[in-house]
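Weekly structure sync - notes
Attendees: PM, LS, DV (DV joined late)
Agenda: review two folding runs queued last week.

Item 1: First target. Sequence and structure tokens pasted below for the record.
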Amino acid sequence: MDEPKIAERRLVEHLADMNEDEALALARRMLLEENADPLHVLALCREAMDLVGKRFEEGEYFLPELVLAGEMLETIGAIAKPLIVNGPGQEPAKHGKVLIGTVHGDLHDIGKNIVSFMLDINGFEVRDIGIDVPAERFVDEIRSWRPDVVGLSGFLTLAFDSMKETVEAIESAGLRDSVRIMVGGGQVDETVRGHARADAFGTNAVEAVGLCKEWMEVPG
């Protein structure tokens, strides 16, 4: 295996194993000294976060590990983002507005943060309203901010009912026809999408970006 591939595997392993100092030092070197593709580095981070999520599900990791993983991701993202928007060409025009949050009863935000970041660097205006967001807050934000897409995130199975309640609140407020709704996180699949009555679901940030591009009719 060549040196770049070895470094990539090490980055994933350091992130997944909670080796903060080693992971951040390696990411900085790859991005700032070796001119690695920042989008590829972020994809490696997502791969590591998938491992973190599995270890959490299996009881190997707990909330402190999830928090640390999110902090490492945020640090690496802060380094990578300027390298993307300041690369060849200009910062992309905003394609549409996406409101995103983790639904009521769920405190997980790693996946949501990755989706927010990837939407941002792909030219969408993103408003992230955080974790444990009640349905009424989504309704208020839709009324005031007028997003094109609403993303409901949830890692825990209890979040599935919260997603449904949020969509129902949006419907009751007469706002359902004004937005596309996507759900994602953890064990979200087509069954959960149907339960929540959302328009689509995504298993990762790339799919979420793809859905938004499709809905906003963004070429490519």
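Item 2: Second target, run right after the first with the same settings.
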Amino acid sequence: MTSRSRWKAWPSWAAMFVVLVALLAVGSTRDSGPLNPGDRIDSISRRVACPVCDGESVFESRNPASEAIRAEIRASVYDGTATDNEILASIANSYGGKVLLVPSSSGFDALIWALPAAGLMVGLVGLWFAFRRWREEAAALGPPSTEDYSLVEQARQARSEHVCE
């Protein structure tokens, strides 16, 4: 592949990357939401951890503390004045932030979830550039000579003698 054809292919890869990131962003934030109050109560209850049980949501748990939180959610939903996020924020303020199973999609919580993904992407792009540079440097050196082969063979023999001792 020539340098010119690589430069021609680069914009299409960049466009595919941008489209992929946009689709992931839209897919992760888009929510049609529950249609009726019962669905809203269930949806919110699944996002709150039982303060007493380990690994259970308020929706699954039959602990009295979970029953109290479900009653609070039910009252807030049927009151109709608070959104799902406001109800979750109220519960988090009452019981502590650790009670939320799903982090909020804004503020510091979003940053905590986004930084590892961004770090992974930066690392992958960095590796791609490093591998490309190493491949170009290796191509600039040309094919190995007979002297190179003899040096490698001498090093292998010296290593095998060192291991056997």
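Discussion on item 2: DSSP finds six helices and no strands in the chain.
Action: LS to circulate a short write-up before next sync.
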